Amino acid sequence: MSAEHVQINEQKQRTMGTIILDMLFNRTPDVYPAPDIMEKYDIIIFFGPIWMGLVASPIRPYLNYLKEHPQKYGFVSISGGADGSNPKLEDELKKLTGVEPITLIDLHIANLLPSNPKPSRKVTSAYCLNDKDVEALSNKITQTLEGRIE
Ligand SMILES: Cc1cc2nc3c(=O)[nH]c(=O)nc-3n(C[C@H](O)[C@H](O)[C@H](O)COP(=O)(O)O)c2cc1C
Fold first, then answer.
1. Which of 14, 78, 118, 125, when mutated, tests ligand 1's pocket best, judged by the most ligand atoms within 8 Å of its CB?
2. Which pTM was predicted?
3. Ligand 1 mean position, distance from CA 69 (Å)
4. Which domains does the chain have, with CATH numbers?
5. pLDDT tens across 63-104, in order?
């Protein structure tokens, strides 16, 4: 994609403990670059993991900012998927930003693995994407986005 990539960074080191605390207590971590960086773009596509059925907390400061400064945005994830789809995602994006995303793509690591036995959370967490997976998933994402971004 001819898009500029901006990496979201955190002030503090991320741990499994802080993931769980953020999601349980709805915390929003300090991140950089500051969310006003989004103002120079026409469309923002967030890419990140899903934690406990919701958008990973480091993306929240940007979604919150969009509520006050509306812009077209989408969300793309390669999440675990061991428990099936993540049905709360769309409502959360709408709640935080005030508007629907132009695209929401939630691909699952579980779908890359044999379906029998059903992949567990432990198995999806331990799985490392290989080059072929990354290429297939990237193609799927760009194909889906192409149809939705003007
Ligand atoms: C604490 C925690 C909770 C997670 N919850 C979900 C979930 O609810 N749904 C899902 O599909 N994946 C879930 N995942 C998997 C992540 O979305 C992601 O695929 C996984 O962390 C691998 O990406 P990473 O290497 O960038 O962390 C979770 C992962 C962690 C660490």
1. 125
2. 0.93
3. 29
4. 9-148 (3.40.50)
5. 999 999 999 999 999 999 999 999 999 999 999 999 999 999
